[in-house]
């Protein structure tokens, strides 16, 4: 192998792929990145057996061949090289060693054979469509906070993507829930998505997609089948296995008849929740919302530390009601809303509350109260 | 040398099982296991009648029933055990504030300067045993010596319902005569290794130099060197606040397959869960420790938002952490499970309701 490439191009590509590699893997080949040099292109590939990212960059290929090198070490080396440097990688005389040269630096790196590198993502896709980067980002960013980390309910450890028909419109929906709260975002279904199977996109893929979508320029091509999904961001391609499970029938927990409407200024509300929750050092302490006509009183009581109260203006004309919520959950949702005004639809202190942007129907959040 | 300490180790006899036999006359004289007879159940405690058949705590219930077909299972009643434990602790505190509970049924007491100004630690141990018998109708064994290591060894000597004293001038001799496997902190795996090095008894251990022991056993070498000479400077610490609850097992033979590891995990999880339940503690962070045949050690942990309150939840979390480590390229010689981010159970002020998805 002999490859020459600009440091910036190599760093960018490694930056995209190396995160996939688990820092603490017990299988040596999985600590490596595959490097495949052929006809003017260098292809990099990393996998953890569930998720794979490949990226192609142009390079000066002196002698085509493929090998694998320790991913994090290679990334760290390239990162530390000076800006504007040229990097060359070539097979050295010794068995299994590669030499990386740049300026006056020289590194001899132990490689593992390319043939040991697993291929876990081959196979056909049944559906394909494309989304503008902003739409993909919205679907994922606004739901990912609600993904469950409880490993016993593995089918909640990701975002459920499916197409639903509502009043004759086809919608592409992203849903995540951890059993306490639920986030649902929808968009008009893109061409090609009709009839796609509902799939659960695992958390790690979600995190990487969010990173890659930031750098994406054109539309993102998406392909999927029942057990895997591929996102192509130009020359960077992410392929992931999907969570093999059944996402629960989430529609049942979205309340349809909550009649008490509360509207607050989102920023004011968020800051007030943040302030009063200072008094509870533990996570997950409840903030009590006491609603009465035209006003909302937020309070937190911590037997060990004291209490905090703050009143904010609110548009509410229902009967007085006290309801408690996990302060962290309220902040998470307030952070995802877009409009200046947040709309709460409540039923009673023991039933799910619906939270939305005042006018936007595309994102919806359901939050279960805490008993206070 | 600092003035000689007087340490008592009190250990209830077959605690959970004895409580069940006390409260249910039909169980008396019969082999009893506290735990569940279900297929995947594990014995939490065994009565002496059951132990005669080879039934041991942390043994899978299926194995226990094979060894003792007449075994009677009693479901655990941790509330009762806790209450008894509280009463025993109150007795200890009559004698000294320096009480370090190890679990519900075991504690170290430092009675060097005791509240009753009784000079003889042996007399105190006898009084405590008599009061436990009188107030709880249960028996305890006690060991008396000048450090924790020997006191614990001593309490095991005349079990059940016995007392044993190791006076300062007998400590080293007592240790010398003991088979190595009887030492606290020396499990089956270490025993095997020591035997291979020609160490069968405390005397053999004493013959080894400190560098030799450190070379073969690392940090533990220093501890072994001390105890071989009857030396143990650890203090009785009444203020010990537990940050974590854990258990681990070193296997006689290395494990390679996931199902072997999952099976090996069950008794470890049971021990941790029983301790948590006993102490009324829950935690949110589960750590699984794996030591490979080449002594490389790795840990994997996960933290959940909600407290892990049941044995099943603990096992599920531990398994999920173990899963990605298999198939394992190397043999696994040790597995451990630890629960941390502890909080008192059942005292959450606020309770999050569930959506019911």
From TrEMBL, chain A:
<dbReference type="GO" id="GO:0005737">
    <property type="term" value="C:cytoplasm"/>
</dbReference>
<dbReference type="GO" id="GO:0003887">
    <property type="term" value="F:DNA-directed DNA polymerase activity"/>
</dbReference>
<comment type="similarity">
    <text>Belongs to the beta sliding clamp family.</text>
</comment>
<feature type="domain" description="DNA polymerase III beta sliding clamp C-terminal">
    <location>
        <begin position="252"/>
        <end position="371"/>
    </location>
</feature>
<feature type="domain" description="DNA polymerase III beta sliding clamp N-terminal">
    <location>
        <begin position="1"/>
        <end position="120"/>
    </location>
</feature>
<keyword id="KW-0239">DNA-directed DNA polymerase</keyword>
<dbReference type="GO" id="GO:0008408">
    <property type="term" value="F:3'-5' exonuclease activity"/>
</dbReference>
<keyword id="KW-0238">DNA-binding</keyword>
<dbReference type="InterPro" id="IPR001001">
    <property type="entry name" value="DNA_polIII_beta"/>
</dbReference>
<feature type="domain" description="DNA polymerase III beta sliding clamp central">
    <location>
        <begin position="131"/>
        <end position="249"/>
    </location>
</feature>
<comment type="subunit">
    <text>Forms a ring-shaped head-to-tail homodimer around DNA.</text>
</comment>
<comment type="function">
    <text>Confers DNA tethering and processivity to DNA polymerases and other proteins. Acts as a clamp, forming a ring around DNA (a reaction catalyzed by the clamp-loading complex) which diffuses in an ATP-independent manner freely and bidirectionally along dsDNA. Initially characterized for its ability to contact the catalytic subunit of DNA polymerase III (Pol III), a complex, multichain enzyme responsible for most of the replicative synthesis in bacteria; Pol III exhibits 3'-5' exonuclease proofreading activity.</text>
</comment>
<keyword id="KW-0548">Nucleotidyltransferase</keyword>
<dbReference type="GO" id="GO:0009360">
    <property type="term" value="C:DNA polymerase III complex"/>
</dbReference>
<dbReference type="GO" id="GO:0003677">
    <property type="term" value="F:DNA binding"/>
</dbReference>
<dbReference type="Pfam" id="PF00712">
    <property type="entry name" value="DNA_pol3_beta"/>
</dbReference>
<keyword id="KW-0963">Cytoplasm</keyword>
<dbReference type="InterPro" id="IPR022637">
    <property type="entry name" value="DNA_polIII_beta_cen"/>
</dbReference>
<keyword id="KW-0235">DNA replication</keyword>
<dbReference type="InterPro" id="IPR046938">
    <property type="entry name" value="DNA_clamp_sf"/>
</dbReference>
<protein>
    <recommendedName>
        <fullName>Beta sliding clamp</fullName>
    </recommendedName>
</protein>
<keyword id="KW-0808">Transferase</keyword>
From TrEMBL, chain B:
<dbReference type="InterPro" id="IPR001126">
    <property type="entry name" value="UmuC"/>
</dbReference>
<dbReference type="GO" id="GO:0003887">
    <property type="term" value="F:DNA-directed DNA polymerase activity"/>
</dbReference>
<feature type="site" description="Substrate discrimination">
    <location>
        <position position="16"/>
    </location>
</feature>
<dbReference type="GO" id="GO:0005829">
    <property type="term" value="C:cytosol"/>
</dbReference>
<keyword id="KW-0227">DNA damage</keyword>
<dbReference type="GO" id="GO:0009432">
    <property type="term" value="P:SOS response"/>
</dbReference>
<dbReference type="InterPro" id="IPR043128">
    <property type="entry name" value="Rev_trsase/Diguanyl_cyclase"/>
</dbReference>
<keyword id="KW-0239">DNA-directed DNA polymerase</keyword>
<dbReference type="Pfam" id="PF11799">
    <property type="entry name" value="IMS_C"/>
</dbReference>
<keyword id="KW-0234">DNA repair</keyword>
<keyword id="KW-0808">Transferase</keyword>
<dbReference type="InterPro" id="IPR036775">
    <property type="entry name" value="DNA_pol_Y-fam_lit_finger_sf"/>
</dbReference>
<dbReference type="Pfam" id="PF11798">
    <property type="entry name" value="IMS_HHH"/>
</dbReference>
<comment type="subunit">
    <text>Monomer.</text>
</comment>
<feature type="binding site">
    <location>
        <position position="105"/>
    </location>
    <ligand>
        <name>Mg(2+)</name>
    </ligand>
</feature>
<protein>
    <recommendedName>
        <fullName>DNA polymerase IV</fullName>
        <ecNumber>2.7.7.7</ecNumber>
    </recommendedName>
</protein>
<dbReference type="InterPro" id="IPR017961">
    <property type="entry name" value="DNA_pol_Y-fam_little_finger"/>
</dbReference>
<dbReference type="InterPro" id="IPR050116">
    <property type="entry name" value="DNA_polymerase-Y"/>
</dbReference>
<comment type="function">
    <text>Poorly processive, error-prone DNA polymerase involved in untargeted mutagenesis. Copies undamaged DNA at stalled replication forks, which arise in vivo from mismatched or misaligned primer ends. These misaligned primers can be extended by PolIV. Exhibits no 3'-5' exonuclease (proofreading) activity. May be involved in translesional synthesis, in conjunction with the beta clamp from PolIII.</text>
</comment>
<keyword id="KW-0235">DNA replication</keyword>
<keyword id="KW-0479">Metal-binding</keyword>
<feature type="active site">
    <location>
        <position position="106"/>
    </location>
</feature>
């Amino acid at each position: 192998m002999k490859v020459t490439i600009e440091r910036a191009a190599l760093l960018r590509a490694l930056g995209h792929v190396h995160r996939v590699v688990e820092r603490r893997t017990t299988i040596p080949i999985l600590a490596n990145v595959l490097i495949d040099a052929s006809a003017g292109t260098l292809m990099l590939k990393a996998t953890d057996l569930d998720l794979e990212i490949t990226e192609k960059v142009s390079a000066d290929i002196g002698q085509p061949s493929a090998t694998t090198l320790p991913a994090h070490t290679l990334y760290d080396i390239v990162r530390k090289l000076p800006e504007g440097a040229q990097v060359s990688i070539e097979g050295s005389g010794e068995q299994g060693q590669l030499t990386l040269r740049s300026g006056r630096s020289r590194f001899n790196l132990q490689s593992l054979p390319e043939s040991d590198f697993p291929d876990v993502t081959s196979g056909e896709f049944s559906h394909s469509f494309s989304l503008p980067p902003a739409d993909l980002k919205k679907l994922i960013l606004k739901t990912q906070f609600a993904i469950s980390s409880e490993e016993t309910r593995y089918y909640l450890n990701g975002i459920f993507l499916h197409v639903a028909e509502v009043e004759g419109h086809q919608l592409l929906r992203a849903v995540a829930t951890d059993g306490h709260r639920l986030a649902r975002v929808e968009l008009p279904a893109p061409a090609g998505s009709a009839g796609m199977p509902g799939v659960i996109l695992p958390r790690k893929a979600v995190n990487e997609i969010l990173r890659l979508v930031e750098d994406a320029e054109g539309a993102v091509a998406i392909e999927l089948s029942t057990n895997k999904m591929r996102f192509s961001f130009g020359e960077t391609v992410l392929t992931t296995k999907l969570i093999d499970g059944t996402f629960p029938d989430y529609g049942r927990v979205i309340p349809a008849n909550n009649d008490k409407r509360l509207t607050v200024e989102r920023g004011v509300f968020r800051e007030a929740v943040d302030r009063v929750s200072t008094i509870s050092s533990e996570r997950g302490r409840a903030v009590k919302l006491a609603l009465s006509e035209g006003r909302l009183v937020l309070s937190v009581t911590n037997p060990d530390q004291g209490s905090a109260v703050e009143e904010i203006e609110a548009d509410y004309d229902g009967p007085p009601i006290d309801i408690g919520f996990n302060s962290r959950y309220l902040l998470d949702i307030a952070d995802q809303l877009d409009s200046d005004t947040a709309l709460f639809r409540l039923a009673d202190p023991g039933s799910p509350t619906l939270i939305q942007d005042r006018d936007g129907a595309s994102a919806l959040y359901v939050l279960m109260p805490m008993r206070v | 040398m600092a003035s000689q300490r007087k340490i008592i180790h009190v250990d209830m006899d077959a605690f959970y099982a004895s409580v069940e036999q006390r409260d249910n006359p039909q169980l008396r004289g019969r082999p009893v296991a506290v735990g569940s007879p279900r297929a995947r159940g594990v014995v939490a405690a065994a009565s002496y009648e059951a132990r005669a058949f080879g039934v041991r705590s942390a043994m899978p219930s299926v194995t226990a029933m094979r060894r003792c077909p007449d075994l009677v299972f009693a479901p655990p009643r941790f509330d009762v055990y806790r209450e008894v434990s509280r009463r025993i602790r109150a007795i200890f505190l009559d004698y000294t504030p320096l009480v370090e509970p190890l679990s519900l049924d075991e504690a170290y007491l430092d009675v060097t300067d005791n509240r009753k100004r009784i000079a003889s630690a042996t007399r105190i141990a006898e009084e405590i045993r008599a009061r436990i018998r009188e107030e709880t109708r249960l028996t305890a064994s006690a060991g008396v010596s000048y450090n924790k290591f020997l006191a614990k060894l001593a309490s095991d000597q005349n079990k059940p319902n016995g007392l044993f004293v190791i006076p300062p001038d007998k400590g080293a001799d007592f240790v010398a005569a003991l088979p190595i496997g009887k030492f606290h902190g020396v499990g089956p795996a270490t025993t095997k290794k020591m035997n291979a090095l020609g160490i069968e008894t405390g005397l053999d251990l004493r013959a080894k130099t400190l560098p030799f022991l450190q070379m073969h056993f690392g940090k533990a070498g220093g501890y072994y060197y001390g105890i071989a000479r009857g030396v143990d400077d650890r203090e009785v610490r009444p203020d010990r606040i537990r940050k974590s609850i854990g258990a681990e097992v070193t296997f006689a033979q290395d494990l390679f397959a996931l199902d072997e590891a999952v099976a090996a995990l069950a008794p470890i999880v049971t021990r941790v869960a029983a301790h948590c339940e006993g102490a009324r503690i829950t935690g949110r962070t589960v750590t699984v420790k794996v030591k490979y045949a080449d002594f490389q050690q790795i840990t994997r942990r996960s933290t959940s938002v909600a407290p892990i309150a049941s044995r099943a939840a603990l096992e599920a979390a531990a398994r999920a952490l173990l899963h990605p480590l298999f198939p394992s390229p190397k043999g696994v010689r040790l597995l451990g499970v630890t629960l941390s981010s502890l909080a008192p159970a059942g005292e959450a002020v606020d309770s999050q309701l569930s959506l019911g998805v």
